[in-house]
Specification:
This protein is of the alpha/beta class and about 220 residues long. The chain has a single domain (about 5-215), classed as 3-Layer(aba) Sandwich (Rossmann fold), CATH 3.40.50.300. It is built from 9 helices and 8 strands. It has a 5-stranded parallel β-sheet. A 3-stranded antiparallel β-sheet has the order 3-4-5, with helices on one face. It binds 2'-deoxycytidine-5'-monophosphate. 2'-deoxycytidine-5'-monophosphate binds near residues 36, 99, 131, 180 and 184.
């Protein structure tokens, strides 16, 4: 076994992937790569340039103008789109939906996957997304598939927004999550699916600590 520790975490929107991945990265002192942020940055570029996200040829044509760079500051991933720090901007709900659309296009996926695989060659990391265990890091030491009941995922998002002082509608959030899951699971290229060798954890009734402990047990068994 080589010394590089690679952990792949996949699952639907709001399953807790990033919270869990950040905790693992901190505890194992490895890098956390949020691949959703990369697809979000592609979507943001298209949105800011009035490119119709539903027209694949238009998105693909503009793709060569998209330069993404990941920089770590104080162990936190910052993402640059054509030299602008878009770490905060890409968190908007509309950008998440846009990311779900542009990520269905093969040339977009190829470009992102290449960058992701390049990062994993050099360093130990925990990477989260939708296709990490199935396509990006097929040899990952540990693969985890996180899921949770859709209403519970919606409630988590709802609470996050309320905590930030934003207004939110639980049913609307649930509908958006369902729509995004449907698109991510039914696309032609690298759809969201559990890898055969992934450990599935339903986090509906688990605390963050419980999920982290469970994953650590799995890692330590490998
Ligand atoms: O995890 P997220 O909400 O930031 O992801 C935004 C969208 O990007 C998601 O709906 C699907 C897409 N995505 C993907 O197709 N593959 C990945 N590895 C990560 C995200």
């Amino acid at each position: 076994m080589n010394d590089i520790l690679t952990i792949a975490i996949d699952g639907p929107a709001g399953a807790g992937k990033s919270t869990i991945a950040k905790r693992l990265a901190k505890d194992y002192e490895i890098v956390y790569v949020d691949t959703g942020a990369m697809y979000r940055s592609v979507a943001l570029y298209m949105m800011e340039h009035d490119i119709n996200l539903d027209v694949e040829s238009a998105v693909v044509e503009a793709l060569s103008q998209v330069h993404i760079r990941i920089v770590y500051k104080d162990d936190t991933q910052n993402i640059y789109l054509n030299e602008e720090d878009v770490t905060q901007k890409i968190r908007q709900q509309s950008v998440g939906e846009g990311a779900s659309k542009v990520s269905a296009y093969l040339p977009v996926r190829k470009k992102m996957v290449m960058m992701q695989q390049e990062m994993a060659k050099k360093t130990s990391l925990v990477m989260d997304g939708r296709d990490i265990g199935t396509h990006v890091l097929t040899d990952a030491r540990v693969k985890i598939f996180l899921s949770a009941d859709v209403m519970i995922r919606a409630k988590r998002r709802f609470n996050e927004l309320i905590e930030k002082g934003a207004s939110a509608d639980l049913q609307m959030i649930a509908n958006e999550i369902k729509e995004r899951d449907h698109r991510d699971m039914n696309r032609e290229h690298a759809p969201l699916v559990q890898a055969k060798d992934a450990h599935m954890l339903d986090t509906s009734n688990m605390s963050i600590d419980e999920v982290v402990d469970e994953i650590k047990k799995i890692i330590e068994m490998r």
